[in-house]
Amino acid sequence: MSVLSVEALRKTFVRGLARRRTEALRGVSFAVEPGEIFGFLGPNGAGKTTTIKILMGLIFASSGTARLFGTEVGRREAKQRLGYLPENPYFYDYLTVVELLDMVGRLHGLPAAQRRQRASALIEEVGLGHAAGRPLRSYSKGMLQRAGLAQALIGDPELVVLDEPMSGLDPIGRKEVRDIIVSLRRRGKTVFFSTHILSDATLLCDRVAILVRGELRDTGPLGQLLSPAIDGVEVLYTADDELGARIAAGPGQHERTSEGRVARVADLAAANAVAKAVLEGGGTLLSLAPHRQSLEELFVQEAAAPGRGAEAGS
Ligand SMILES: Nc1ncnc2c1ncn2[C@@H]1O[C@H](COP(=O)(O)OP(=O)(O)OP(=O)(O)O)[C@@H](O)[C@H]1O
Ligand SMILES: [Mg+2]
Which whole number is the average pLDDT over 204-213? Predict the structure, then answer.
């Protein structure tokens, strides 16, 4: 049974007197299985937060279904088994992180002793030990994000839903959050998080879904979404002008850089032909680098792909 799933989910926001409509979700379906780290990827405005808010029961879908632990969202039982970090965590800012965790722990029904013990362990884990006694209003953005993560974990939930958990964090903070996410999986938890920081997704996720303008473009293991095939080869070499011009007259794109001359060709056979010409012509081969599609490029390509605009007048 899936821990979290949405099916044919649609959400249209209607705003203002002009009744401007925004189709934030246009029929999105995917499922997250137990024990997975599942990345929800998409550029700004793709509909990630909208999907998560529907799953958290904070807003209603226009149509379609959203399920947690196999039952439609909005049931109290599911909330107990769930930890949630909102995109813009709003906390009672006069509280300290200790008090915040105590409050959220109480909502999860934890007894006092367990709340205290879990709170102090989590505060250390998210790196807020030095600021535990300070009110949240004195926290920086990154510190608030860490406090938000701690409150999502206080109930020791089976499922952790994090909307942009790395946002506002410096590289060390991001590494710490990644480590926490990995340790959650080790303990058998399921983690669903949204991000547009692609390197974090590459490092963490078992599977991802890529959302663009309210439509799912792809779901699966990153390794499968990224074509493993070589989509080009870069040959770096030095040569005199006569040899360089001869090679540049051949197939591919050619340019000069501070390091030498670069030939970008379609495949390994073409690259080897360039290398042979370089060596036979008395030039020096510096490198030959096959290129595979990165997540970054997939993302840019998906975002640029033609699709209907998000906004539609009525
Ligand atoms: N309350 C709202 N009223 C009107 N439009 C909304 C509302 N909330 C979201 N939208 C629109 O829905 C679309 C999706 O927004 P959403 O916040 O889900 O995107 P996102 O993928 O989370 O983006 P980001 O990466 O910037 O957080 C956007 O076009 C946004 O303007
Ligand atoms: Mg968002």
Answer: 91
